[in-house]
Each structure stands twice: as structure tokens, then as C-alpha cells.
Write the C-alpha cells for this entry.
Amino acid sequence: MLTQSMTPATEQRLVLEGVSWQQYETMLATLGDDFPNLRLSYLEGTLEIMTTSPEHEELKKVIGMLLEAYFQETRTRFHALGSATFRKAMKLRGLEPDECYCLREKKEVPDLAIEVVITSGMINKLDIYQGLGSLKSGNGRMGNSCFIICAQRDMNKSTRVNYCLTWMYSN
């Protein structure tokens, strides 16, 4: 008999190669809002489907609350867009950030996105954000601001978990 935990302790990922843009759009439409703990990332024919863990959800919520408190304290006008799906068919890119914000006014793509990474993904999300236009590049480097904060902790002697927060911001 096979048993599975109802809430996985870690993120799980499935990567599919050779997925057309139409198949990606169909997957988004089929899943709709019925599966909030799934994140889909699409980059030029590669689709990554990720489940989030309770730890992942807690971290993104705490980081989001801290940012929103900062915005309130500094009187920064912002629009919290949560994990809305952003995509551009012409660039063959799409994703759902953990949390995202437009600063000052609403825009087509967010100014700031929070991606909490507990286990390494297969798709480079910075490439997706660049293609969406939320990160600008100049001379081959990421423009404006991109902060990546990583830490490691040993759960036990045989398991190592990497934590990474990526904060992407553009004007």
C-alpha cells in the first residue's frame, strides 16, 4: 500500500520540456484558482510546476508583511498583486511570483517581486522577469536592483536545505 503525506514537507517540482505556449495557456486555464499552492513558470518551451510547502507560504507571508509595513511607514504608494500570473506570449515567458507589488501606480508587470526559494528550481526566474520587462539589463547586468539573500541550514546530517530570497525591483 502506497501512502503519501497530505501536506508535503518540502517543495516538489516537475519540469516538462517541449511545452508549447498554447499548452501552457491551457494548463493555466484548467488549473484556474483551484490550486493556490501550485506555481507554474514557463520559459521558452520549458514548464516548471512547483508545489509550495507550509514553510514556503509562511516565509513569503512574513516577507510580504514586512515590506507592506515598510511601505506604510515610508508612505510609499503601492498595489499588492499577490501571486497574479504574468506572461508575454511574444517572449514565451510566464510565471506566478510568491508576492508582487507595483509602486506608485498599477502596471503591466510588477516593480517588485518576492520569490522564496527553498529548493532549487530548474528554470532561471531572473530570465523570465527580464523577458517580461520587470527587470532591465544594461551591459549584460541586471538593472536597478536585484538582491539575492541566501542561507543554508542542516536539517540533519543527511539533508541540507537552501533558503533563498530574491527581491527584484525596477523603476
Q: What stands out?
A: Confidence is low (pLDDT under 50) at residues 1-8, 136-165. The radius of gyration is 17 Å. The first helix runs from residue 21 to 31.
